[in-house]
Design brief:
The complex is a heterodimer of chains A (about 300) and B (about 260). Chain A is about 65% helix and about 0% strand. Chain A is an all-alpha fold. In chain A, α5 (about 85-95) packs parallel to α7. The radius of gyration of chain B is 20 Å and the shape is globular. Chain B has one domain (about 1-255). Classes of the chains: A mainly alpha (about 300), B mainly alpha (about 260).
Chain lengths: ~300, ~260
């Protein structure tokens, strides 16, 4: 073999070997340093200092921090964790770097507000985030809507929710639903009708598939909760009339208390239990339901959405 | 073979010294002494932090600038001055020339870093009045910085084997910046789908990983560095540098020097 050919062969083999070896080593390094980039937040936790250090490239840095926040929330949510300590600082840094990054308020508040493991369980921080967003983007009606939603769903602060919806409805080009929500709040605060109206608004107004799927799942869950409440009231009434619980829905029909066999939003018939309780057939397919689950049922960490959503 | 590589390496080192590369040490000394005296007077409790952060950052940036700006001229300058033809007319192979140049510049950077490291420790002693056990981690951070230099030197040499000095500098500097966000890049690749995922993952694994080699913030906070990280980082830097040098040799072997 000629000397130059030998050099080419040797260095080509070296090159290929090194590419493979470096990729393998990087995988090991990544496994060893899980979350290492996020830990940096602890070293420079001041958003203002970071903004100065970004030398004017704050938009790009905000997008990096937003992606980190998404990854952080995603990984914690996937683990079923109850601790989301870095979520609020990451979102604070993101929105200070770019106060007009609307997506960070919209999704960030939804990451922060719900109870763990669905979210960070920090509704007050979520409200602060939305308020900061509103101060910087006063014409974005969606921020008022999100704030009202958190006031209503997570804080049960109906006056705060009504105020946020009312403020949002005055914004130019606000969605007409906001006026309806602000008006309905006084009449229906705390009941299923209001919750259904809110989730329906989210379903109708969002452009995002995952948010739409989440809203659809919540709407189904509300339907189940309402159905189960009504059906258990009927079995209770039947027991008062006859001294025993009905053994099937046909007995309720025969007693004139029910018309037809009741089905859940997925089309499955409800199960009538001997003690008068009503259960759904596939609780894992109906995330977020509060009623109709077997005793001791633990919902999966990741909610199951339907492909049709 | 070894003697020829050592000869080229020592010549490269001498040339760098003649080019007054080590003058940066004066700027570094002024920066460190100024920072040590000033921070103690205008702040409370962060003197040690500032000296470590500033010192190690300066070592890293000064070294990067030297690696890139000397590295880009290693091949092109020899061609421009026609000294390359004199070297290659002797029994020196092209790959030996590339490997010798790499070791010469790496040696220059190692000496430069060694002197700067003394400066960092003198400043540390000035502000703390005594050394602490955890100051030893600063040595690990300095070692990682030298590993970064090896990668950047190899990459610059690779680019300079086929590109103009200006473009080589741009490519090398861009890769340094991208490599500093390498872990983020792999994270982004992980959340994409389909063809984008394949392309992004490929790119993310091909760019140098400088994130794991930067432990400045953690050593400034006296946090230990694991032995496993030192081992993996050493292996990674050597493998990546070998990869870039192999690429440089393959390109340079085929380059028409007429």
């Amino acid at each position: 073999m000629k000397a130059s050919r030998r050099v080419t062969v040797v260095f080509s083999l070296l090159l290929v070997g090194c590419v493979a070896a470096s990729a393998l080593l990087l995988r090991r390094l990544d496994r060893m340093r899980t979350g290492a980039t996020l830990e940096e937040v602890l070293y420079i936790s001041s958003p203002k200092a970071l903004k100065k250090m970004s030398l004017g490239y704050d938009g790009l840095l905000a997008e990096i921090y937003w992606t980190r926040a998404v990854q952080y929330f995603g990984s914690k949510h996937h683990e079923g964790s109850h601790h989301f300590d870095l979520l609020a600082p990451l979102l604070e840094i993101t929105t200070t770097l770019d106060p007009h990054l609307l997506v960070a308020y919209e999704y960030g508040a939804n990451f922060l507000a719900p109870k763990p493991p669905s979210g960070g369980g920090m509704p007050e921080r979520a409200i602060e985030l939305e308020e900061y967003g509103i101060r910087n983007n006063p014409d974005e009606w969606r921020l008022y809507y999100n704030e009202g939603f958190i006031h209503y769903m997570d804080l049960k602060d109906y006056a705060g929710a009504a105020d946020a919806f009312a403020r949002g409805s005055r914004v130019p080009n606000a969605h007409p639903y906001l006026k309806v929500l602000a008006g309905s709040m006084a009449q229906h605060a705390g009941d299923l009708h209001m919750a259904r109206l809110l989730w329906n608004t989210t379903y109708q107004t969002t452009q995002d598939k995952s948010v739409r799927a989440n809203a659809a799942a919540h709407l189904r869950a509300l339907q189940v909760d309402e159905d189960v409440t009504n059906l258990e009231a009927l079995t209770g009434r039947y027991q008062q009339q006859t001294g025993r619980f009905p053994s099937s829905f046909s007995e309720l029909q025969a007693a004139g208390l029910l018309r037809g066999t009741p089905v859940d939003p997925l089309g499955h018939t409800y199960k009538l239990m001997p003690d008068g309780r009503v259960e759904v057939r596939a609780p894992d397919d109906l995330p977020f339901i509060q009623k109709g689950t077997p005793p001791g049922y633990v919902a999966p960490v990741a909610p199951k959405f339907l492909p049709a959503d | 073979m070894t003697a020829r590589i050592v000869h080229i390496a020592s010549n490269t080192f001498r040339e760098a010294v003649r080019d007054r590369v080590l003058y940066n040490l004066i700027v570094f000394a002024l920066l460190m002494s100024g920072a040590s005296i000033l921070v103690g007077q205008i702040s409370i409790g962060i003197e040690r932090l500032v000296v470590i952060n500033l010192g190690l950052t300066a070592v890293s940036l000064f070294g990067m600038v030297i690696a890139i700006f000397i590295g880009i001229g290693l091949v092109s300058k020899e061609i421009e001055k026609r000294t390359l033809y004199t070297v290659l007319s002797r029994p020196v192979r092209r790959w030996e020339f590339i490997v010798g140049k790499f070791f010469g510049l790496a040696g220059t950077l190692a000496v430069n870093t060694f002197v700067m490291a003394i400066g960092v420790f003198v400043s540390l002693l000035y502000v703390s009045h005594h050394f602490q056990k955890q100051d030893g981690w600063v040595l690990v951070a300095l070692y990682f910085i030298v590993l970064q230099f090896l990668i950047v030197t190899a990459l610059t040499l690779f680019f300079s084997s086929f590109s103009s000095p200006l473009l080589s500098a741009v490519f090398a500097f861009s890769l340094f910046v991208i490599g500093s966000f390498a872990e983020d890049l792999r994270g982004f690749a992980g959340i994409t789908h389909g063809l984008t995922r394949w392309l992004a993952t490929g790119a993310a694994y091909l760019v140098p990983n400088f994130s794991a080699l930067n432990v400045i913030s953690s050593v400034a906070h006296a946090q230990p560095v694991s032995g496993q990280l030192i081992l993996y980082n050493s292996a990674y830097a050597l493998i990546y540098a070998t990869m870039a040098i192999s690429g440089a040799v393959l390109v340079f072997e085929r380059r028409n020097l007429k």
